Amino acid sequence: ILAGSVLMTPELFAFVSVVFFFASIFALVTSNATKLVRTKVSQALAPQPHDVNVEEDDVKLRIAVFFGTQTGTSERFAREVEAELNQRYGTAVCVRTADLENVTPDLADESFCAKEEPLAIFLQSTYGDGEPTDTSTEFVHQLRDLAGSGKMSKHLQKLTFSVFGLGNSSYEHFNAAAKLLDKSLEQLGATRLVDIYLGDDDGSLEDDFQSWKECLWAEIEGRYCISAANSCGNDLTSYVVISASMDDAEAVHQNLEASLTQNPAEGRTSSTAPYSAQVCRAFELHSNASDRSCVHVDFNICGTGICYQHGDHLGVFAENSLPVVQRGASCLNYQLDYVFTLTIPSGAPASLSTPFPTPCTLKAALTKYADLLSPPRKTALAALASVSSNPAQKARLYHLASAAGKQEYNAYIVDPGRSLLEVLEAFPSAVPPLGLFFGFVSARLAPRFYSISCSPLDNPGIVSASVAVVREERPTGRLHEGVASSFLARYLPEKGERNLPAVINSHRVPLFVHPSNFKLPRNASTPVVMIGPGTGFAPFRGFLQERAALRRCGKLLGPAYLFFGCRSEHHDFIYREEMEDALANETISELHVAFSREFSNRKVYVQDKLMEFSSKLNSVMKDDQGCAGSIYICGNAKGMARDVNRALHSILIREGGYAGYEAEGIIAHLSEAGRYQKDVW
After folding, report:
1. Which of 134, 147, 423, 586 lies most in the core, judged by the most C-beta atoms within 10 Å?
2. Neighbour tally for 616: CB within 10 Å
């Protein structure tokens, strides 16, 4: 883990060996495992260009910072922790940051040192329905299983650790992956330096992160007798910017496009290795009477080798619109055709990530890489304050970024959803240099995820997404348009036209498949209940296609009950014909639709429809007369999913005669058994 020029302690080596031990056993007992998972060694563990040389005799504490990330937030936090540790404690600490994906035995160096006790810091994100991120799943689950065996309760007794979780309290399994990691480490004998801290993105994740760091610094200084040598800001937080030629930018662009359109190795795609696909079809799902929009988009993956399954997710790299890009360039006082190269300066902090491919034009950089429409972090406001030429604006920005300005930050930034672009326009004296803007002020534009709304059994050369177009007025008066949904809506043909717009007909969209456990039962005869209002129907469209294909192959299908909800039968009853066809050809047994705006005197939601058919649902949950089935929910986590959960709870009490705590136990058992699954956002 602490490889190369940095030595590893025996305790930390033992920590990795524990994981390797279980991985070996796991591979041997898995029926389809013919070899161990291939090790992927990342540059995160190799000597970095901005590593700081540390004299061996000065080091008092060796620290490993690990992150499990899905969209890059926990990695960014981990890099900041590394940078601040080096900044505060200088040569007294030796720090290395690593992705949990790369914690493998191959990285264990034979030359390790026994004179210091290791400290392991984990920043663990939770994804989906309480799952670890893609890159950390193997590590977290292996550690869980090893801890659960009870046979190595003291193996990590000399390891000290701290866990910071990144989650969202609107989800039922809030920070489940971080809690599991923390519990497993404790069961293996490791000692907490700081109690687990659960960051909440539904509140202020930035404030939670800051509070945890303050606790972490205090415990490090108290336990290891290390003093903070430097608490001042680090000036090296920006890239070096060098002007370049348009020819060079065009060459980089062509190479990048060529690499993205090559068929992926073994058909595997990821957020770091996407495939740029063409849109082969797009159409509006709402009727002309609707004041909203929902778009069906088909991407062509024919001949690429890309594989997916029903229920998987699709990651899409979207682009900012031209008006947004033009406003951003205006705030930076540069022309859109300015061409530049970004490089990392010598001695830069670990928080300065690898830049996006350059040279490129400012237009390309703002279009593809800058997150201009999300609220800015406090550190971004502090960076803007440092370059502001107006004393009043400088003071205001510094206050918003400070601990004392927490309430003002929430009122001005968080609550109204004020974007970085709006802040730049509101503080015109704060014009960051390009190196500072891309290195520290603007976050990187992250992929957006959609439930795949098709099955490869229907057409393996197509992967589809059903996209609700976000268009709403924010409290600031700004018309907020979702970056990804608005980007994909550009592919809609003009009214009266059938073909894609000519301007973007050849434009490709970088995407990747994210595997999911949201799958139909292996036994096609198992009863299933599908609950998905609006675009929550997306994965169930794939379920219906999957079941139809199985039926054509002669498989015996069990009963399937579909509960769908929308506002109006005549406005947003998406995929209506497909649902009714599925009912007619017995792909599904029953279809129940709730219209929440159809009647002026009452609103009907999917949970109301569930209560109307409570007896049948009770049988599915309880396994009455061999009716044991699986229940699937897709949609909004904060409202719909919780209301559905309460409805199921009420059904068990009313129909089964259970006490409240017994009903909760049954639902928990269904979830643990994989018979109650959620795909929520």
Report:
1. 147
2. 20
- In whole angstroms, what is the distance from residue 142 CA to residue 83 CA? 29
> How large is the greatest C-alpha to C-alpha distance in the chain, in angstroms?
77
Can you read off the two tokens belonging to residue 435? 């190196």
E-state strands within 323-382: 339-343, 360-361
pLDDT of residue 335: 97
| Residues 51, 349: Cα–Cα separation, whole Å | 8
First and final CA of the chain: distance in angstroms?
34
Residue 676 CA to residue 681 CA, distance in Å, equals 16
Q: Decide if 264 contacts 305 (C-beta within 8 A).
A: yes
The residues assigned a catalytic role are 451, 634, 679, 681
Please, is 111 exposed, middle or buried when counting C-beta atoms within 10 Å of its C-beta (0-12, 13-18, 19+)? exposed
Residues 98, 104, 107: CA angle, nearest 5 degrees: 75
pLDDT single digits (tens) 254-264:
999 999 999 99
Phi, psi of 408 (to 5 degrees): -65, -40
364 touches 319 (CB < 8 A): no
Alpha-carbon torsion (206, 210, 211, 213), positive or negative: positive
Cis peptide bond prior to 533, omega within 30° of 0: no
Which residue, among 543, 517, 547, 523, has the nearest Cα to 672 in the 3D structure? 517
Quick check: 588 and 545 in contact, CB under 8 A?
Answer: no
Q: What is the pLDDT of residues 403-453, one digit of tens each?
A: 899 899 999 998 999 999 999 999 999 999 999 999 999 999 999 999 999
Give pTM, 2 decimals.
Answer: 0.84
Amino acid at 121: I
Q: Alpha helices, DSSP H only, in 556-632?
A: 576-584, 606-612, 614-622
Within 8 A by CB and 6+ apart from 35, the residues are 27
Residue 369 has pLDDT above 90, yes or no: yes
Neighbours of 330 (CB within 10 A): 15
Q: Which amino acid is at 200?
A: D
pLDDT digits (tens, 9 = 90+) for 259-316: 999 999 999 999 889 999 999 999 999 999 999 999 999 999 999 999 999 999 999 9
**Apex CA 481: angle with CA 477 and CA 487, to 5°?**
160
For residue 98, the cross-strand partners are: 66
- d(C-alpha 338, C-alpha 242), whole Å: 11
**Which phi and psi (to 5°) does residue 506 adopt?**
-100, 0
Q: Any alpha helices (H) in 370-519, and if so which ranges?
A: 378-387, 391-401, 406-409, 420-426, 434-436, 483-489
What does the block give as tokens for 462?
Answer: 């197509």
Q: Is the pLDDT of residue 37 over 50?
A: no
